[in-house]
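Write out the 3D structure for:
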Amino acid sequence: MKLFKISLLIYTVLFFTTSLYAKEDLQKEPKKTKPEFESIWQKAYGGDDRDRAFGVIALKDGGAMVAGLSRSYGKGRSDMLIVKLDKKGKTIWRSSYGGKKKDYANAITRTSDGNFIAVGSSESFSKSGDLDVYVVKFDTEGKRAWQKTYGGDEKDEAKAVVAVNGGGVLVAGYTESYGKGRKDVYILYIDKNGKEIWSKAIGGKDEDNAYAITLTADGGFVVAGGTESYGKGRSDFYMLKFDGKGKLLWDKVYGEENEDVIHAITPTPDGGFVVAGKTGSFGSKHSDIDIIKYSKNGKMIWHRIYGFKSKEWANAITRIPGGGYLIAGTTKSFGFGKFDFYLLELDSEGHSVWANVYGGENKEVAHGVTRTTDGKILVVGETESFGNGGYDFFMLKLEKRELGKFTQLLHHRQTIYLYF
């Protein structure tokens, strides 16, 4: 195992926010001490080819399972890769699943029977040779219980998963095999043994995608993504609310003339939910982070947009103590490379509290975020700046601390350690 020590500049930035209804002023120096997240450790993990982390789930001992794609390990062009970490970021084990072709994971969840399910797509086990939804169940040591594919003659992909009672899962993504259009939202309910209980294809004549799914406090669930079939623009925010049996209760479309897409969702205690993604509308010059809170009935409570001169977007969101939210994604507006990890803390009303960028001279994108059981935050994604390969898993653990005053733009040096 090689250990590399890299000195990395990290910018701490106070952001301004615009919204459909209001605009906040940028404060150069807050009057009160602000709670700020500070990095505990950062790690890159991978081989000599491309390895990219897309999903993460917390473990009871403070560690985590990370899921993604690997071309460094496994049997085929790419394999689904699962890495188990302890709370200090040490790799406990890794497992790859797949065949001779392209296979990968986009998301992971812990099931109610104590196991784990990762979802994505597979060419290796597809019935038609095209991509099919790929679901793998395994235990805490990475031993596979079963793997199954779902779909038809065209491309079908799973983007998100959430566990339900009885050991089963709800899976959301898109299908080109079923439905009315070029792509439709695809939702599957799968039991603990991998049996498909039901599936739905929902959409219009064009492309409609689901990227996120969450259970809600009333026993139902919400699926979110983007639609080209309905709405005003190239793509609009698309949300669908279902009851616990999969009956569609309502759907909402929201956006303007350009591309608006939801990538992530988290439930709120009042039965509503908050979505995060990107917008090219509402006055955005390129693409900006877009955050919206909705009530349980789909009524918009607030809408915030965060962005600068170039491109920003959100890929993940989690609730944090105090009722706020941590957003993870990427930015091209500032930092050190083509893109950098972009983390943004919001209060319960969606106002900015703190933000930071992490990265090197090339490209870093955050794809997943979770609260760990030891009270910290773990962010996962991909790095082109650090590691052995073209891309490697990039994992960042944070804790919240009370720090002193900070200015509009403050930079400091931080050391990261890379293990292979």
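The two ends are 5 Å apart (CA to CA).
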